[in-house]
Specification:
26 helices; about 5% strand; alpha+beta
Amino acid sequence: MPPAASTCSNPKPLHARLLRSGALFADRSAAAPLAAAASLASLPYALSLLRAHPSTFSYNSAIRAISRGPRPHLAISLYRSMLSHPTTTTTHPSSPPAPALPLPPHQLQALPSTPPSSAAASNLPSASSGHPSSPSTPPRGTCPPHARMLDADEVTLLALLSACAHLGALHTGRWLHAYLARTCCIPITKYLGTALLNMYMRCGDVQSAWSVFHATRHKDVRTWTVMIAGLAVNGFSTDALTLFREMKDRGIHLDSITLTAVLSACAHAGMVDEGRRILHRMSVDHHLQPTIEHYGCAVHLLGRAGRLEEALALIRAVPLKADVALWGALLVACRCHKNVEMGQMVAMEILRLDPQHAGAWVFLSNVYAAAGKWDLVQEVRSSMKEHGIHKPPGSSVVELDGVVYEFFSGDHSHPQSDQIYAMLDEIGKTLSLKGHKPATKGVTFDIDEEDKEVCISEHSEKLAVAFGLLNTRRGDVIRIVKNLRICEDCHYVMKVISEVYDRVIVVRDRNRFHHFKNGSCSCLDYW
């Protein structure tokens, strides 16, 4: 059971009770819930607890809590601390270990023998500082029976792979894969294999994901589903549907989540007829009734294809009560196809169900801004402020040599800020020579056109790609994770950069992946 909110914000009273009762000294695992709560309040405090009362269970609890929180990169920092502090309390699997999944061939060269650094807080090095602390060497070979460095177990590694997937931290994820390949202490279970597969897909490394998938001996429905879903969001919908057919041919019993992934693949590729056929035949072919998630995929499928009236009719015909997610899929389509009238109606429906829904408020604000109705824009923004509703600021994360860097729009906090903006100026000149004019219609502030151009030129993903160009070699892939949907202007700029600078750029936004190469994108401009 997760700690109570009050415990998460202030774990010291619980710590005091455990000390007075003597529970911490009688049973080291008693520190586990305390460590989990402390890790969310203060990482240095959590570290002091774990070092005073070390156990694999306590470290697992803290790492799992952090990986599910707002700063998952700190889970990797805590894992590095775990490796570097000795203890006699270890847990090893009693069953014979299964063979490690081989690393993809293109990763066999220069495998990292030490865990990469990552961003951390307080007494751990900052990501933006560029000065990671000294890494620790991972354990190798067999597990000796005597005391040694605290080993990670399956639970720890699942949490860490989840954090890497969330962050798009491919370098760190590869190190974890190398750790598994080098040690026989941990069996490669189907859960770890699927977690590795998910990590590579969520990092946009489809080639490595395929290698892991083919090397996994015992695939279950989750393994196949993760692969299908990963191919869909990375723009390989045809491959996803081919894999779905292979899954059926092999007689693997698919579930509701598998069909959600398949419908998502249809939506990302605009395969309207195929998606509708799968939805309508679910009960006949698979003995499954469509859920609200399946209908949401169908609404997204129709909406992205511009069939807004059909999508609206489907929502009204759904035998289940339409929720915010269902209306939200249609709202996104209204925004993409600039159907203001339907969009306003949908936004009102969403606010009726959830008055705190930031997306609906922002949509209304943007509609009024596009129409030049700045008094109504101000009214909407005042209402948002009054109700404590905040739109998350645009941010982009890029990993370099195991360190995770985060950029915000207009950010000047990075030590290389001058070089980053100089690179942006160089990119801007290249764009001008190609006749590009910034798509400023997406800027919803009452400012003149020149200021709008400056605003859009400093979007977080542009800062991230400039940083990547400065700090990586020609031929290196630049991978960026964006917390919002990539805008039209940034999408075009990424295509130009991939061509002019001869780079592959992989951007994961809120909805899908964009693989930019040779001036084109894997989404084929359908996003």
